[in-house]
Amino acid sequence: MKVLHFKTTMDLEEGGVVKAVLDLIRVSAVSDSIGLSSVDAAGLPQEWSKGLPVAVHELKGNVTRAGVLTRAQLNELERIIAGYDVVHLHSMWPTANPQVAKICKGLHKPYILSVHGMLDDWCMSQRRLKKLAYMKTWGRDLLRGASYIHCTAQAELDQASAWFEPSKGVVIPLPFDLSEYRDLPGDDLAYKTFEGLKHDCPKVLFLSRIHYKKGIDRLIRASALLKDRGFEHQLVIAGTGDDSYVKQMQSLAKQVGINNHVYFLGFASGRSKVSLLQACELFALPTSQENFGFVFFESLAAGTPVVTTRGTDTWPEIKQSGGGVIVDNEPEAFADAIQMLLRKPELVSSMGLRGQDWAMSAFESDRILQQYQALYLRTMGDMG
User: Please, which residues bridge with residue 37 across strands?
Assistant: First the structure.
């Protein structure tokens, strides 16, 4: 079975969708013939050139300003797709995806579309008029032509199916590469790498893109409430974002009086990120919307309990893990939950162990791979 994944760009700083594609390819390449086509494949892991059986088809040139593929790129992509059984498209909004779907239709090749939370209610409320216009044209054809629409959680499908025939929807969790978490580095690496980490007080970690959707302003205000209550802690903010918004959040921290209690450390990745998770007692994300939320499961796998909201589609799974607490998306609710947990180190420790055990079992790669293989085979059978 030959499966081709397509995503216009593959830059890890784009966030979870790129990681999702990479992890899915890593898992699938064990048993299937897997390809990836992209206009910009510069962000692919170096180890892929050292034995992982993945055919990388980097399209020559750049997309247009509107994100549309050129005629030469479309011709090249048509030749590539002809050699595969199934095409797996990622994301709802890239204008290149309907072009790829049109090629698939012409070649009688089936395709699956992973929408990655982009049809969630909160997402559809943002820039709504522009999205509705797209949904009446290219987006409508993209959804209609797909054999299946892939969602990563039932809560996502419940919302997304308002935009397509519900019978097309299928729920399969994203694979999660556990290799870094089977041999944890310990917290020493984090203290050496991030010099602003405090040894002598409990730490609450925000690890995500610094974006208004993530609710970092609410976490800063929660930290200020804890300070006013006399509760000693450090708020650790790891991530990057638009410079003006990062400065706005830094100004907010100063304004509410936690400048000495907050540490903006920038982008964290690799072993130092895992170590950072271990060094912090809690991970907190007051998100307005999250699709799968890899970072929640990275935190659980590192043994660090999670505090988040029903804004993430996977909140039932996080709660079920035993390592997560789900609260209202308000500063006071986060302050109360953080204070309650950090006053009970034994509870934090037991939650960390339960969440870690659950993550190692839930994301066992063979189980998830079998679900994707069944989907691809079913897609091929439908075309036959």
Answer: 6, 57
